[in-house]
């Protein structure tokens, strides 16, 4: 059995919902380079948003249509697309070193835990960091992570 990248005291595949396992697989695919194309990674994250359980779906109440995602990707505005996909209910920090590598940090309102990700592309780093932050939410209530 493959374990998640998140500390095992919090999560393991055995205690995750099917959606959370899909989110963890998305993160693993980004880490292992299977999702190295920003458009493919953004599309995969958008699909995860669409099938999110009610608790998480409320974080993504501002839809990003396939047409909008395609428009942004065709304009090579991958970071803009990633920001729209991550949504307004979290804080984000995206950096890129002069030599090229990127990092991203995502924190949902009211949460101490932050999702972070390091990679070659800033858009992929941002959606992967958001995915990791989603996994860290665990038992948090939607009222705590999405203030009115």
Helix-strand string:
HHHHHEEEHH
Approximately how much beta-strand content do the residues carry? Answer: 5-15%
Largest sheet at a glance? 3 strands, antiparallel
Q: Rg to the nearest angstrom?
A: 14 Å
Strand order of the largest sheet: 1-2-3
Mean pLDDT: 84
- Give the terminus-to-terminus CA distance: 40 Å
Low-pLDDT parts are 1-13
Give a summary of the structure in a few sentences:
The chain has helices at 18-31, 38-50, 54-57, 66-74, 78-86, 122-137, 142-145; strands at residues 90-96, 102-108, 115-119. It has 148 residues and is an alpha+beta fold.
Key structural traits:
148 residues; alpha+beta; 3-stranded antiparallel beta sheet; globular
């Amino acid at each position: 059995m493959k374990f998640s990248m998140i500390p095992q005291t919090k999560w393991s595949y055995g205690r995750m919902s099917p959606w959370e396992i899909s989110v963890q697989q998305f993160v693993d695919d980004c880490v292992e380079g299977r999702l190295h194309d920003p458009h493919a990674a953004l599309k995969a994250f958008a699909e995860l948003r669409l099938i999110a359980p009610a608790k998480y779906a409320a974080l993504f109440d501002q839809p990003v249509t396939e047409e909008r995602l395609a428009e942004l990707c065709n304009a090579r505005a991958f970071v803009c697309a990633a920001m729209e996909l991550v949504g307004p209910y979290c804080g984000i920090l995206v950096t890129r070193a002069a030599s090229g590598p990127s990092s991203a940090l995502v924190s949902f309102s009211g949460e101490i835990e932050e999702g972070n990700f390091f990679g070659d592309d800033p858009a992929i780093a941002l959606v992967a960091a958001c995915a990791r932050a989603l996994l860290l939410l665990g038992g948090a209530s939607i009222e705590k992570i999405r203030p009115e």
